[in-house]
């Protein structure tokens, strides 16, 4: 029986500002750099969350959630469900705080991410995708003990993600649009909440791969949808089989539109960043650049959030080798 959940409420700017202070010693204030493409392309700036200590933005939310635990909760430990980046974030934050951590890890997660979670001291419980999704809904799993930190539907987790928006607007107050990948929806909710509170004129775009685009489908239909044509791909950190109603409720007020890109466009974006800026990005991290290059987010300045760089090097080389040069 799923537990009674806290009512969804807006993420307040003050909560995001408090989170920034709370996590300052755990996370990196990541750089914002221009992707130099020339006058025929949109003005794209890259928010390099792949440079966090776990090579992904999830550390922001995890650090905030763990820091807000009571003393008794810290002793019991924390657990989460993840295909990699959320698990690494919670494991890293827990290790920093001296808190035991368990990760119910999806069996199809890349081996590189599994090894990183294990190296951070997390106890791993491998499960099939369907069982992991069921555990997300029930917020429980046999053998997983302590406080459950939801990898996206968690108020404090989302507030932590919003801290990157404060940095974005300090570094580029002229920003016209921000693009973020959507997996569960926590990243774009946090980023959008802060951006809209500070400058509601800035457009917030979500992006998904064509093989897993429930948020774009939900936007088109006006209600949370199941994506029936879902396919597994190298974009393992974004896209899903369905849009959770609670996350749809969180996203609706802060996201202006959704962009869907092909896997080929995503590979090309990965290659482009490697060639032009020497940046290694996983598939989900490259989606915002692919979306910006479609022109659907305008001429810019566009901030593309490079959400992570956790990808096996052999796989990365194969993918960018398959992509034709731009």
Please characterize this protein's 3D structure.
- The chain has 326 residues and is α/β, with parallel strands linked by helices.
- It has two domains: 13-55 and 158-322, Rossmann fold (3-Layer(aba) Sandwich); 59-155, Rossmann fold (3-Layer(aba) Sandwich), CATH 3.40.50.
- Helix content is 43%, strand content 15%.
- The chain has 14 helices and ten strands.
- It has helices at 13-23, 58-67, 71-76, 85-97, 111-119, 129-138, 155-161, 163-171, 186-198, 214-221, 245-251, 263-277, 283-293, 313-322; strands spanning 32-35, 44-48, 78-82, 101-106, 123-127, 147-148, 177-181, 203-209, 257-261, 302-306.
- The strands form two sheets. The protein has a six-stranded mixed β-sheet, with helices on both faces. It has a four-stranded parallel β-sheet with strand order 5-4-3-6.
- Helix 9 links the parallel strand 7 (177-181) and strand 8 (203-209).
- The longest helix is centred in the C-terminal third of the chain and has 15 residues, at 263-277.
- The radius of gyration is 18 Å and the shape is globular.
- It starts with 12 loop residues before the first helix and ends with a helix.
- The model has no long low-confidence stretch (mean pLDDT 92).
């Amino acid at each position: 029986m799923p537990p009674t959940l806290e009512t969804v409420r807006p993420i307040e700017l003050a909560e995001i500002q408090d989170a920034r202070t709370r996590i300052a010693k755990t996370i990196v204030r990541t750089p914002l750099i221009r992707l130099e493409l020339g006058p025929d392309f949109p003005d794209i700036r890259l928010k390099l969350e792949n440079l966090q200590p776990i090579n992904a933005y999830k550390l922001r939310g995890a650090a905030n959630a763990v820091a807000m635990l009571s003393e008794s909760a810290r002793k019991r430990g924390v657990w989460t469900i993840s295909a990699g980046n959320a698990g690494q974030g919670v494991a890293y934050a827990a290790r920093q705080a001296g808190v035991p951590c368990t990760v119910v890890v999806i069996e199809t997660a890349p081996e590189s991410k599994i090894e990183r979670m294990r190296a951070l001291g997390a106890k791993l419980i491998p499960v099939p995708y369907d069982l992991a999704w069921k555990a997300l809904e029930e917020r429980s799993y046999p053998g997983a003990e302590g406080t459950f930190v939801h990898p996206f539907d968690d108020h404090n987790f989302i507030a932590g993600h919003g801290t990157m928006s404060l940095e974005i607007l300090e570094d580029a107050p002229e920003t016209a649009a921000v693009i973020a990948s959507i997996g569960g929806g926590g990243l774009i909710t946090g980023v959008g909440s802060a951006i809209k509170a500070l400058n509601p004129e800035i457009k917030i775009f979500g992006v998904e791969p064509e093989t897993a685009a429930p948020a774009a489908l939900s936007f088109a239909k006006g209600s949370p949808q199941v994506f029936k044509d879902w396919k597994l791909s190298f974009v393992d950190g974004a896209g899903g089989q369905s849009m959770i109603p609670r996350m749809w409720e969180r996203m609706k007020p802060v996201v202006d539109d959704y962009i869907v890109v092909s896997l080929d466009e995503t590979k090309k974006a990965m290659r482009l960043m490697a060639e032009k800026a020497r940046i290694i990005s996983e598939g989900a991290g490259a989606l915002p650049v692919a979306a910006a290059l479609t022109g659907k987010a305008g001429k810019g300045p566009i901030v593309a959030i490079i959400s992570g760089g956790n990808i096996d090097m052999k796989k990365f080389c194969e993918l960018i080798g398959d992509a034709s040069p731009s």
